[in-house]
Fold this sequence. Notes:
The structure holds two protein chains of two kinds. By secondary structure, chain A is an alpha/beta fold. Helix content of chain A is about 35%, strand content about 25%. In chain A, the strands form three sheets. In chain A, strands 5-6-7-3-8-9 form a six-stranded mixed β-sheet, sandwiched between helices. Chain A has a four-stranded antiparallel β-sheet with strand order 11-12-10-13, with helices on one face. Chain A has a three-stranded antiparallel β-sheet with strand order 2-1-4, with helices on one face. In chain A, α6 links the parallel β6 (about 155-160) and β7. The two termini of chain A are about 35 Å apart. The two termini of chain B are about 30 Å apart. By secondary structure, chain B is an all-alpha fold. At the A-B interface, α2, α3 and α5 of A face α5 of B.
Amino acid sequence: MIAFDHVGKRYRSVLGREVRALEDFSIELHAGEVFGLAGPNGAGKSTLISLLLGYLGPSEGTIRIGGLDPRRYVEAHGISYLSELVNIPPGWRAEEALRRYALLAGVEAPARNARVDAVIEWMGLGEHRAKRVKQLSKGNLQRLGLAQAVLTEERVIVLDEPTHGLDPVWTQRFRDVVATLRRDDRVILIASHNLDELARLADRVAIIDHGRLQRVVDVRGVAAPAGGDRTPYRLVLVRGAELMPSVFPDARALGQGEFQLDGPTLDEVNAGLAALLASGALVTMVYPVHSMLEQQFREAVGIGEGEP
Amino acid sequence: MSRARVGAYALWQLRDYLKDRGLSTVIIAVLSAYLAMSTTTETVPMPRPGDPVVPGMLARFGNPDAVYAARMSEFSFHLMRSMLGAMVFLGALFAMNGIVANDRKQGFFRFLFAKPVTPSRYYGQAFVVHWLGFMIVMLLLGLLYGAIVWPVLTPHFVLVVGLMFVAYAGIAFLLSAAARWDWLSLVVVAVAATFLWSKFGASTHPLARLLFLLPPLHRADEVYASVSGMPVLSAAELPVVPWPLVAWFSAYGIICYVAGLVVLRFRRLAIV
Lengths: 308, 272
């Protein structure tokens, strides 16, 4: 559906220095999948999305969407797109903005008003529909940006930091929105700093850093680390804390019955838990300090344990 | 095959023009008229219906009403001539300022052109719609002027104003498509063209041919004078519109407009 083939993007700064925003980036995104894009600030995520929409041209390599050059694809079919910064003229009213975008997106006149009303309802913007864009809060503006992206049934959806500015309720609802949007003939690309969000939503996540693809994590295909993989865990007990030094000699007490286990294997954690429970301890929680995706991210971008 | 209804979006573009740009054009035009009135009355007094009539004028025109009409027509000519050029230039500047560049600078292009919309089609249409909006504004101002001062709207007036707008607006459109600081660029082009044509226009040096790359703005006054009314008292011959010159101006604007469309067709929209 979408293919990046050895794509590179170079800029020239005002002082004439060459900046490589993206280097030798190759990947294919398939219809039916939700694909995540993760990376530190300045990693090249936004450049990649601008290339995908044809707002920038690649310095090397090719990009194809449905076999077409990005700009040709967008001008023929459109892409549902939410940008990182929601840029809508501040004087427009929320409903007016959606009517304009619906018209430009090709929603036919008889269905246009009904579609706009439905999207306003879906995104919970009913009480804000008559407000000007400049009067909307960050969260409402973000929802308006999402609303304009889902006005039409496009086969490619690109969401750049979609939960930025959303409150916890709408962050949760956003997951439902993505679940609703997921379709066999559609690819959804989500760029986010929020690894937990990507781990919940995406099938695969590409981790990029310094303009290079570091790795692609198959989120659905990989369970928790097993065997020799070592990851720090936290364990919380309400009874039996005195047993910890004998069961997990390297455990660090964090207070309030919480301990950190630095780098045991999953087998060691389970064996230790069995010993604790057999001795009468009451364990309330065991969890990895970093999610599997976060662990992969930290390795990919070279963040060591103990670093934030 | 594009599904987008860019044509239907023209109504939104016209509304945007009238609200955001047309209103400011009216305000500036009224202020310009007020200033022009003050300076014109210093050289050509504004006639009033009860003014005493000079016997020679009475003999020439037959009755006091005809004398008043002749003097009013003369006054209107000088007033219109002193402000028409500025109004068309400022109207074009307001209509085209940032027409492409603002959307690029402020990021509004991101949602617009993720829809199945071609930038050259969208902005090409905006140019035409803004031209139409400007003509509506100028017609209204012309009617107002006619009611307060002296009727000035004629088919030649409307046509010349419309074509001169195209000359300035075409340049502004190209600059907005190609550069970020389009309003400043337009002013620079206007000043440079007027200065260079005035200074080297008569030169026979081969390099002087390069002047034809610039619009003949030093002769714009000839065009405006030809449609500013009837100077029946001061001119032996009534003005005739210099159509070849008008054609030169408008062709220059149209070429710039087409060049702007070509830039939009091939230039990437994101600013890096």
